[in-house]
Structure formats: structure tokens, C-alpha cells
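User: Batch of two.

Assistant: Item 1 of 2:
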Amino acid sequence: MSTDNLRITFAAADLQKISAALDALEAALAPVLITLTGKEVQRLPKASDASLPFIQQALDLAEQQPQFAPGYIDIAGLRLDLEAWQQLQSIGRRLQPLATNLASTNVKLGSEAYVTALAFYNSVQQAHKQGISGAQDAHTTLKARFEQSRAKAAKPAAPKA
């Protein structure tokens, strides 16, 4: 991991291009994407790349020997589901590294900003302790963040019903 500070700036035109690309992606995917709750996801059997040969073989055999398929199975629907799943898997594979790198960059930038802000706060604390003019107001403003954190940590957990 690089210990160098990141220095990133975005031109307004670049942000507009990124936003337009995301808008286009969302618009293209919106008609087909659904949202499941965590419980719904847990309840569903999960397919993976390891499942693909089985699914493909079952589909091939179902198309070749439809007499073995129960009446409630939609063989054509199975083919559509498999093709769409493979297409979305491909899209997801392209998006995953981008999302991972976006998250990593975001964590690094946030960390850098927080560490720098803490360094400033420590300097303000020292100035306040030394009675330097103007430090009191800055100290009062900045220390509120830590007082809120301490108050939350000290608050006893509510009993479970």
C-alpha cells in the first residue's frame, strides 16, 4: 500500500462525464434490476460459476427430452434466465474491480482528511492549553465531535424486549 498522500482533483467537465455515464448505466439496467431484502437473498438457492455446467446440462437435456420435464417448468424461460444471468455476471465482473478501487480510493482519501484534521485539532488543543488567543473557539467547535462519540459510548445499551 502506498503511504503517499493522494492528490485528486476533478474538473467539472470530468464529473459531468462520470455522472452522465452512471446515469446511462442506471437507465440501461433499471428496467431489469430488482431489489431483494436480506432475508429474501438468504432464502434463495445460490448459483455460481461452479453451477453453470449443471444448469447448462439440465437445460440441454430438458430441450432434448422435454417429456421428463414437469409441467410447471418453463424450459424457454430457463434458457432466458440462464442467458440473462450470464450477461449480468459479465457486467458485474467488469464493475467489481471499479467498485473495489473506488471504495479503496475513498477510504484512503477519507483517512488522509481525518488524519490531517486530527493533527490540526491536536495543534488547537495545545494552543488552547497555552492560552493562545482565538484557540478557545476553535477548540470548543472541534471537541464537540469527540464529546458526542464519548456520550454514545457511555450510553448503556437498551434492554432487548
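Item 2 of 2:
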Amino acid sequence: METVRLVLLIIHLLGFAALFGGLVVQAGLPEKTVNGAMRDGVGTAFVAGLALVGVLEAGDHDVNHAKIGVKLTIGLILLVLVMANLRKERIPQGLWVGLILLSVANVAVAVLWSSAHA
């Protein structure tokens, strides 16, 4: 079970990396868009995160449900915003900044909220 948890954690982190990379690569561009890396990254991170919580619940890990709830809410907002703007030719600068801030906030919750595995 520990191997499954670690594989899901790696997939979750790679999904975030794709989302964040898809955002940051546009930093110098005058017009921002939702690109494939953002779409695939947010979907991968979200689904892998859900699966990771399931594995943690099934195992002997303590799960901080408040932390998971906050991360789920932020992740769902990210997923909805990315998918809702997927077919648009461009997105507003404010939305792009918001997506970056939400992504960083989700990582900050994961890292800074006290709990060993959840």
C-alpha cells in the first residue's frame, strides 16, 4: 500500500508541475491562454489527489479531513476555472494571476498545514 501511495503522490506532484509550468511559461506573453499542460496537469493532480486520499483512508495513515477539504476546494476551483476557459482564445490577466495564486495556495496548504501524511 505504501508503494501505491508514493506512486500516487508522484503523479499528483507531476500534475501540479504541469499546471504550474503551463502557467509560468506564459509569464512573458501579452496574451494568456489555457494550454494543454494546464488542462492535463490540473486534471491529473485532481484525480491523483482524490485517489491518494482514498489510499490514505484505506491504510493506517491519519488523514486531516479539514486540510483535505481545503485542498479539494482549491483543486476543484482550479479544475473548473481551467476547464471553463479551455476553448477561449485568451484569458484575462487577472484570471491567469488567480490561477497561479490558487496553485501556490494549494501547495502551501499541503506543505505548511501540520500533518505528516495528509
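The chain has four helices and no strands.
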